[in-house]
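batch_manifest entry 22 of 60
target: Heme chaperone HemW
source organism: Marinomonas maritima
requested by: lab member K.T.
priority: normal
notes from requester: please return C-alpha coordinates only, no post-processing; we will run our own comparison against the previous entry in this batch. if the run fails, retry once and flag.
--- input ---
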Amino acid sequence: MSIQLPPLSLYVHLPWCVRKCPYCDFNSHQADRFETNGKLPEDAYLAQLLADLDADLPYVAGRPIQTAFIGGGTPSLMSEGFYYRLMDALREKLTWADNAEITMEANPGTFEQEKFSHFRQAGINRLSIGIQSFQPNLLKTLGRIHNRDEAIHAVDKSRAAGFDNINLDLMHGLPDQSLEMAMEDLSLAIKLNPEHLSWYQLTIEPNTEFYRRPPTLPEDNTLWGIQDEGQALLTQHGYVQYEVSANSKINRRAEHNLNYWRFGDYIGIGAGAHGKITLSNGQIFRTRKTRHPNHYLNNLPEALVIKDAIEQEDLPLEFMMNRLRLFETFDLKDYERFTYQTLPVPLIKACETALKQGLLDTEAWKNNCVKTTEKGKLFLNELLELFLP
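--- output ---
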Protein backbone atom coordinates (compact mmCIF):
# COMPACT_ATOMS: atom_id res chain seq x y z
CA MET A 1 0.00 0.00 0.00
CA SER A 2 1.47 3.38 -1.01
CA ILE A 3 2.05 5.83 1.83
CA GLN A 4 0.35 9.21 1.68
CA LEU A 5 1.33 10.92 4.90
CA PRO A 6 -1.44 12.72 6.84
CA PRO A 7 -1.55 16.48 7.53
CA LEU A 8 0.96 17.70 10.10
CA SER A 9 0.37 20.13 12.99
CA LEU A 10 2.50 21.59 15.77
CA TYR A 11 1.69 21.80 19.47
CA VAL A 12 3.77 24.01 21.81
CA HIS A 13 3.28 23.67 25.57
CA LEU A 14 3.93 26.45 28.08
CA PRO A 15 3.57 24.89 31.54
CA TRP A 16 3.13 27.92 33.81
CA CYS A 17 0.02 29.63 35.19
CA VAL A 18 -0.63 32.16 37.93
CA ARG A 19 -2.52 29.63 40.03
CA LYS A 20 -3.55 26.01 39.55
CA CYS A 21 -7.33 25.74 39.11
CA PRO A 22 -8.99 23.03 41.24
CA TYR A 23 -10.50 21.24 38.20
CA CYS A 24 -7.33 21.29 36.05
CA ASP A 25 -5.43 18.07 35.29
CA PHE A 26 -3.21 19.59 32.57
CA ASN A 27 0.53 19.83 33.01
CA SER A 28 0.52 23.28 34.61
CA HIS A 29 2.62 24.69 37.44
CA GLN A 30 2.32 27.84 39.56
CA ALA A 31 4.60 30.40 37.96
CA ASP A 32 6.00 32.11 41.04
CA ARG A 33 7.67 28.87 42.11
CA PHE A 34 9.86 28.99 39.01
CA GLU A 35 10.59 32.71 38.85
CA THR A 36 13.86 34.46 39.52
CA ASN A 37 13.52 38.13 40.44
CA GLY A 38 9.89 37.94 39.35
CA LYS A 39 10.66 36.53 35.89
CA LEU A 40 10.10 33.13 34.35
CA PRO A 41 13.10 31.43 32.65
CA GLU A 42 11.92 32.50 29.19
CA ASP A 43 15.30 32.41 27.43
CA ALA A 44 16.19 28.99 28.75
CA TYR A 45 12.75 27.57 27.95
CA LEU A 46 12.80 28.98 24.42
CA ALA A 47 16.23 27.46 23.79
CA GLN A 48 15.00 24.08 25.02
CA LEU A 49 11.81 24.28 22.94
CA LEU A 50 13.87 24.81 19.80
CA ALA A 51 16.31 22.02 20.71
CA ASP A 52 13.28 19.80 21.33
CA LEU A 53 11.91 20.72 17.91
CA ASP A 54 15.25 20.05 16.22
CA ALA A 55 15.22 16.53 17.68
CA ASP A 56 11.78 15.84 16.15
CA LEU A 57 12.40 17.39 12.73
CA PRO A 58 14.12 14.35 11.17
CA TYR A 59 10.88 12.39 11.64
CA VAL A 60 8.78 14.83 9.60
CA ALA A 61 11.26 15.53 6.77
CA GLY A 62 10.17 19.00 5.72
CA ARG A 63 6.42 18.29 5.71
CA PRO A 64 4.46 21.57 5.91
CA ILE A 65 2.79 22.61 9.15
CA GLN A 66 -0.93 23.08 8.52
CA THR A 67 -1.89 24.33 11.99
CA ALA A 68 -0.23 25.21 15.29
CA PHE A 69 -1.55 25.51 18.82
CA ILE A 70 0.22 27.14 21.77
CA GLY A 71 -1.32 25.78 24.96
CA GLY A 72 -0.67 25.47 28.65
CA GLY A 73 -0.70 26.43 31.45
CA THR A 74 -1.29 30.01 30.50
CA PRO A 75 0.79 30.85 27.42
CA SER A 76 -0.18 34.52 27.60
CA LEU A 77 1.90 34.87 30.78
CA MET A 78 5.04 34.88 28.66
CA SER A 79 6.34 38.22 27.42
CA GLU A 80 5.73 39.78 24.03
CA GLY A 81 9.42 39.36 23.22
CA PHE A 82 9.24 35.63 23.89
CA TYR A 83 6.62 35.21 21.17
CA TYR A 84 8.39 37.39 18.62
CA ARG A 85 11.50 35.22 19.07
CA LEU A 86 9.54 31.95 19.13
CA MET A 87 7.54 32.69 16.00
CA ASP A 88 10.61 33.92 14.11
CA ALA A 89 12.43 30.69 14.98
CA LEU A 90 9.47 28.50 14.02
CA ARG A 91 9.20 30.24 10.65
CA GLU A 92 12.89 29.65 10.08
CA LYS A 93 12.94 25.98 11.08
CA LEU A 94 9.62 24.79 9.62
CA THR A 95 7.80 24.80 6.30
CA TRP A 96 4.37 26.38 6.73
CA ALA A 97 1.24 25.89 4.66
CA ASP A 98 -0.34 29.01 3.22
CA ASN A 99 -2.78 30.61 5.68
CA ALA A 100 -1.84 28.20 8.47
CA GLU A 101 -4.08 28.50 11.53
CA ILE A 102 -1.94 29.47 14.57
CA THR A 103 -3.83 29.51 17.87
CA MET A 104 -2.80 30.68 21.33
CA GLU A 105 -4.63 30.05 24.59
CA ALA A 106 -5.05 33.22 26.64
CA ASN A 107 -6.56 34.21 29.96
CA PRO A 108 -8.95 37.18 30.11
CA GLY A 109 -6.95 38.96 32.84
CA THR A 110 -6.05 42.60 32.24
CA PHE A 111 -2.31 41.86 32.36
CA GLU A 112 -2.57 39.40 29.45
CA GLN A 113 -4.91 41.64 27.45
CA GLU A 114 -2.24 44.32 27.15
CA LYS A 115 -0.16 41.88 25.08
CA PHE A 116 -2.84 40.80 22.58
CA SER A 117 -1.70 43.17 19.82
CA HIS A 118 1.88 41.90 20.16
CA PHE A 119 0.71 38.29 19.87
CA ARG A 120 -1.11 39.19 16.64
CA GLN A 121 1.93 41.04 15.25
CA ALA A 122 4.14 38.05 16.06
CA GLY A 123 2.04 35.94 13.67
CA ILE A 124 -0.58 34.31 15.91
CA ASN A 125 -3.90 34.56 14.08
CA ARG A 126 -6.40 32.80 16.36
CA LEU A 127 -7.04 33.40 20.06
CA SER A 128 -8.69 30.96 22.46
CA ILE A 129 -9.83 32.78 25.59
CA GLY A 130 -10.48 30.73 28.73
CA ILE A 131 -13.55 32.35 30.27
CA GLN A 132 -15.27 29.25 31.81
CA SER A 133 -18.03 31.37 33.42
CA PHE A 134 -19.13 34.98 33.76
CA GLN A 135 -20.62 34.57 37.25
CA PRO A 136 -18.57 35.80 40.23
CA ASN A 137 -19.44 32.93 42.58
CA LEU A 138 -18.64 30.28 39.96
CA LEU A 139 -15.40 31.99 38.93
CA LYS A 140 -14.35 31.92 42.58
CA THR A 141 -15.27 28.24 42.92
CA LEU A 142 -13.27 27.43 39.78
CA GLY A 143 -10.24 29.31 41.05
CA ARG A 144 -10.27 31.74 38.16
CA ILE A 145 -8.48 35.05 38.67
CA HIS A 146 -10.49 37.18 36.25
CA ASN A 147 -13.94 38.70 36.66
CA ARG A 148 -16.98 39.12 34.41
CA ASP A 149 -15.98 42.57 33.12
CA GLU A 150 -12.44 41.41 32.29
CA ALA A 151 -13.85 38.47 30.34
CA ILE A 152 -16.07 40.74 28.26
CA HIS A 153 -13.32 43.29 27.77
CA ALA A 154 -10.88 40.54 26.65
CA VAL A 155 -13.03 39.89 23.58
CA ASP A 156 -13.16 43.60 22.74
CA LYS A 157 -9.41 43.87 23.26
CA SER A 158 -8.71 40.89 21.00
CA ARG A 159 -10.82 42.43 18.22
CA ALA A 160 -8.97 45.73 18.57
CA ALA A 161 -5.69 43.79 18.32
CA GLY A 162 -6.73 42.44 14.92
CA PHE A 163 -8.00 38.95 15.76
CA ASP A 164 -10.88 37.93 13.50
CA ASN A 165 -10.90 34.30 14.64
CA ILE A 166 -11.69 33.88 18.33
CA ASN A 167 -12.72 30.90 20.45
CA LEU A 168 -14.28 31.20 23.87
CA ASP A 169 -13.92 28.34 26.37
CA LEU A 170 -17.02 28.01 28.51
CA MET A 171 -17.92 25.28 31.01
CA HIS A 172 -21.25 23.99 32.24
CA GLY A 173 -22.38 21.50 34.85
CA LEU A 174 -20.47 23.57 37.41
CA PRO A 175 -20.85 23.20 41.19
CA ASP A 176 -24.38 24.22 42.26
CA GLN A 177 -25.09 25.60 38.79
CA SER A 178 -28.75 25.78 37.79
CA LEU A 179 -30.16 25.54 34.28
CA GLU A 180 -30.87 29.28 34.36
CA MET A 181 -27.29 30.09 35.38
CA ALA A 182 -25.86 27.94 32.60
CA MET A 183 -28.09 29.55 29.98
CA GLU A 184 -27.18 33.02 31.25
CA ASP A 185 -23.48 32.21 30.77
CA LEU A 186 -24.03 30.75 27.32
CA SER A 187 -26.25 33.63 26.20
CA LEU A 188 -23.63 36.18 27.16
CA ALA A 189 -20.92 34.22 25.37
CA ILE A 190 -23.06 34.13 22.22
CA LYS A 191 -23.71 37.87 22.52
CA LEU A 192 -19.94 38.45 22.34
CA ASN A 193 -20.13 36.89 18.86
CA PRO A 194 -17.02 34.67 18.77
CA GLU A 195 -16.36 32.58 15.68
CA HIS A 196 -16.05 29.44 17.80
CA LEU A 197 -17.41 28.26 21.17
CA SER A 198 -15.92 25.35 23.10
CA TRP A 199 -18.78 24.55 25.47
CA TYR A 200 -18.09 21.54 27.63
CA GLN A 201 -19.25 19.90 30.83
CA LEU A 202 -17.03 19.92 33.90
CA THR A 203 -15.61 16.49 34.66
CA ILE A 204 -13.83 15.60 37.87
CA GLU A 205 -10.38 14.26 36.98
CA PRO A 206 -7.92 12.39 39.23
CA ASN A 207 -4.99 14.38 40.62
CA THR A 208 -7.07 17.55 40.96
CA GLU A 209 -8.28 19.47 43.99
CA PHE A 210 -11.89 18.75 43.00
CA TYR A 211 -11.09 15.02 42.99
CA ARG A 212 -9.68 15.22 46.51
CA ARG A 213 -12.54 17.45 47.74
CA PRO A 214 -15.49 16.82 45.42
CA PRO A 215 -17.89 19.75 45.00
CA THR A 216 -21.66 19.34 44.74
CA LEU A 217 -22.48 19.04 41.04
CA PRO A 218 -25.90 19.46 39.39
CA GLU A 219 -28.17 16.43 39.24
CA ASP A 220 -28.43 14.43 36.01
CA ASN A 221 -31.81 15.93 35.06
CA THR A 222 -30.31 19.42 35.29
CA LEU A 223 -27.28 18.36 33.24
CA TRP A 224 -29.53 16.92 30.51
CA GLY A 225 -31.59 20.09 30.49
CA ILE A 226 -28.50 22.28 30.19
CA GLN A 227 -27.20 20.20 27.29
CA ASP A 228 -30.52 20.17 25.42
CA GLU A 229 -31.39 23.85 25.86
CA GLY A 230 -27.80 24.94 25.32
CA GLN A 231 -27.38 23.16 22.02
CA ALA A 232 -30.74 24.49 20.84
CA LEU A 233 -29.63 28.03 21.75
CA LEU A 234 -26.31 27.60 19.94
CA THR A 235 -28.05 26.28 16.82
CA GLN A 236 -30.54 29.14 16.91
CA HIS A 237 -27.66 31.63 16.75
CA GLY A 238 -25.79 29.93 13.92
CA TYR A 239 -23.30 27.82 15.87
CA VAL A 240 -23.05 24.30 14.46
CA GLN A 241 -22.00 21.48 16.77
CA TYR A 242 -19.37 19.56 14.82
CA GLU A 243 -17.64 17.80 17.73
CA VAL A 244 -18.62 16.63 21.23
CA SER A 245 -17.84 20.00 22.84
CA ALA A 246 -17.14 22.30 19.87
CA ASN A 247 -19.53 24.67 18.10
CA SER A 248 -18.65 27.10 15.35
CA LYS A 249 -20.01 29.44 12.76
CA ILE A 250 -19.89 28.22 9.16
CA ASN A 251 -16.31 27.65 7.95
CA ARG A 252 -14.89 28.56 11.36
CA ARG A 253 -14.17 25.15 12.84
CA ALA A 254 -10.91 24.72 14.73
CA GLU A 255 -8.65 23.28 12.03
CA HIS A 256 -6.02 22.23 14.56
CA ASN A 257 -8.50 20.16 16.56
CA LEU A 258 -9.96 18.71 13.37
CA ASN A 259 -6.53 17.34 12.52
CA TYR A 260 -6.36 15.64 15.93
CA TRP A 261 -9.78 14.02 15.56
CA ARG A 262 -9.16 12.95 11.95
CA PHE A 263 -6.06 11.04 13.11
CA GLY A 264 -3.60 13.47 11.58
CA ASP A 265 -0.02 13.91 12.77
CA TYR A 266 1.36 16.52 15.15
CA ILE A 267 4.71 17.38 16.67
CA GLY A 268 4.51 18.14 20.39
CA ILE A 269 7.22 20.26 22.00
CA GLY A 270 7.47 21.60 25.53
CA ALA A 271 7.18 20.12 29.02
CA GLY A 272 4.57 17.36 28.97
CA ALA A 273 3.69 17.83 25.28
CA HIS A 274 2.34 14.87 23.32
CA GLY A 275 2.82 14.14 19.63
CA LYS A 276 1.81 11.61 16.97
CA ILE A 277 4.06 10.99 14.00
CA THR A 278 3.74 8.72 10.96
CA LEU A 279 6.91 7.58 9.20
CA SER A 280 7.28 6.97 5.48
CA ASN A 281 7.22 3.20 6.10
CA GLY A 282 3.75 3.49 7.66
CA GLN A 283 4.87 3.09 11.29
CA ILE A 284 2.92 5.32 13.68
CA PHE A 285 4.24 6.31 17.08
CA ARG A 286 3.32 8.70 19.85
CA THR A 287 5.73 10.91 21.78
CA ARG A 288 5.55 12.22 25.34
CA LYS A 289 7.96 14.84 26.61
CA THR A 290 9.05 14.90 30.24
CA ARG A 291 6.49 16.77 32.35
CA HIS A 292 8.25 18.74 35.06
CA PRO A 293 9.57 22.10 33.83
CA ASN A 294 12.85 21.79 35.76
CA HIS A 295 13.56 18.36 34.31
CA TYR A 296 12.64 19.64 30.86
CA LEU A 297 14.93 22.65 31.18
CA ASN A 298 17.95 20.76 32.49
CA ASN A 299 18.22 17.75 30.19
CA LEU A 300 19.33 17.10 26.64
CA PRO A 301 16.53 16.63 24.08
CA GLU A 302 17.25 12.88 23.89
CA ALA A 303 16.34 12.59 27.58
CA LEU A 304 13.06 14.46 27.21
CA VAL A 305 11.07 12.07 25.06
CA ILE A 306 9.32 8.74 25.38
CA LYS A 307 8.32 7.08 22.09
CA ASP A 308 5.54 4.50 21.97
CA ALA A 309 4.70 2.68 18.73
CA ILE A 310 0.97 2.20 18.21
CA GLU A 311 0.45 -1.55 17.87
CA GLN A 312 -1.61 -2.82 14.97
CA GLU A 313 -4.28 -4.36 17.21
CA ASP A 314 -4.78 -1.00 18.94
CA LEU A 315 -5.30 1.00 15.74
CA PRO A 316 -9.08 0.42 15.40
CA LEU A 317 -9.76 1.87 18.87
CA GLU A 318 -7.17 4.67 18.43
CA PHE A 319 -8.69 5.67 15.10
CA MET A 320 -12.36 5.39 16.03
CA MET A 321 -11.87 7.07 19.43
CA ASN A 322 -10.78 10.15 17.53
CA ARG A 323 -13.02 10.06 14.45
CA LEU A 324 -16.22 9.43 16.38
CA ARG A 325 -15.74 12.62 18.41
CA LEU A 326 -16.57 14.41 15.16
CA PHE A 327 -20.16 14.43 13.96
CA GLU A 328 -19.21 14.42 10.29
CA THR A 329 -19.70 11.46 7.95
CA PHE A 330 -16.47 9.74 6.98
CA ASP A 331 -15.52 7.08 4.46
CA LEU A 332 -14.34 3.73 5.80
CA LYS A 333 -11.38 4.08 3.42
CA ASP A 334 -10.12 6.82 5.76
CA TYR A 335 -9.08 4.03 8.12
CA GLU A 336 -6.70 2.60 5.54
CA ARG A 337 -5.56 6.07 4.49
CA PHE A 338 -4.54 7.12 8.01
CA THR A 339 -3.41 3.79 9.53
CA TYR A 340 -1.84 2.13 6.44
CA GLN A 341 -3.58 -1.11 7.41
CA THR A 342 -6.27 -3.08 5.61
CA LEU A 343 -9.70 -2.50 7.14
CA PRO A 344 -9.85 -5.13 9.93
CA VAL A 345 -12.75 -7.54 10.32
CA PRO A 346 -13.22 -6.73 14.07
CA LEU A 347 -13.76 -3.05 13.21
CA ILE A 348 -16.41 -3.93 10.63
CA LYS A 349 -18.14 -6.25 13.10
CA ALA A 350 -18.08 -3.55 15.78
CA CYS A 351 -19.71 -1.13 13.33
CA GLU A 352 -22.38 -3.72 12.51
CA THR A 353 -23.13 -4.13 16.22
CA ALA A 354 -23.36 -0.34 16.59
CA LEU A 355 -25.79 -0.22 13.66
CA LYS A 356 -28.05 -2.77 15.35
CA GLN A 357 -27.96 -0.71 18.55
CA GLY A 358 -28.89 2.46 16.69
CA LEU A 359 -25.58 4.16 17.44
CA LEU A 360 -24.47 4.49 13.79
CA ASP A 361 -26.49 5.66 10.79
CA THR A 362 -27.70 2.89 8.45
CA GLU A 363 -28.00 5.09 5.33
CA ALA A 364 -24.38 6.22 5.63
CA TRP A 365 -23.30 2.59 6.09
CA LYS A 366 -24.91 1.63 2.78
CA ASN A 367 -22.37 3.96 1.14
CA ASN A 368 -19.44 2.48 3.12
CA CYS A 369 -19.47 5.51 5.40
CA VAL A 370 -19.74 5.99 9.14
CA LYS A 371 -21.91 8.60 10.84
CA THR A 372 -22.94 8.82 14.49
CA THR A 373 -26.68 8.96 15.15
CA GLU A 374 -28.21 11.27 17.73
CA LYS A 375 -28.34 8.28 20.07
CA GLY A 376 -24.70 7.55 19.31
CA LYS A 377 -23.73 11.09 20.26
CA LEU A 378 -25.46 10.69 23.63
CA PHE A 379 -23.88 7.29 24.29
CA LEU A 380 -20.46 7.88 22.81
CA ASN A 381 -18.59 5.95 25.52
CA GLU A 382 -20.74 2.89 24.95
CA LEU A 383 -20.12 3.22 21.19
CA LEU A 384 -16.35 3.42 21.66
CA GLU A 385 -16.33 0.36 23.93
CA LEU A 386 -17.38 -1.72 20.92
CA PHE A 387 -13.96 -1.07 19.34
CA LEU A 388 -11.88 -2.27 22.29
CA PRO A 389 -9.34 -4.94 21.20
